[in-house]
Task: structure prediction
Amino acid sequence: MDEPQWEGDAPSYEICSCCFFQAGFDDDGASEPVTVEEYRKSWLRYKGTWANFLTRRPENWDLREQLKNIDVDLDKEDKPVIRSIGHITFSVADMERAVIFYIHVFGVQPLLVRPNIAYFESAGIWWTLNLQENMVKEESKQSYTHIAFSVKEEDIETLQARLLKAGATIEESHQHNPNGENKSIYFRDPDGHLLEFHTGTLEQQLDYYRR
Result:
């Protein structure tokens, strides 16, 4: 480009022959403005083709080399920054009641129990109970937000019996279609958190909703 895209608050309004981005319009005056970085990512998804058919692309122009000048390396893959779920925290109004519930339902002993916090671990999942005495239980019942734990189908009946013995509230209205999404049990702990034991896999779930 012949001049900077912006000088202070003043855009150049120059259109880039390479990608057709126009400073002052695409990032400011358009009905859905985007930053130059967002625009560039979208353009690169379409292979970064030379946009302006009225101007000849310079003979030695190389997309990768041009992008490296602004610290964008096409050969460097974007790696996921999330490795796994670190831990899950539930707020509870009564620590003793919550600890007893999770011991009975999951069949594991806590790693640590203190008046304000407790730690559990099972199947590589670490979860924490955090005391919040002023918690309003009814607020959590308005949402479908939940955490699902993978279980074997042959263990569903045993788990249902455990839940009933522990005093869990079974949420019949949320149950899956067993012919498509496999079997599951939705239930609430004493503080109203919605949880699920689910026998299906991600691929089975996707196949069901693709139909």
The chain has a mean pLDDT of 82.
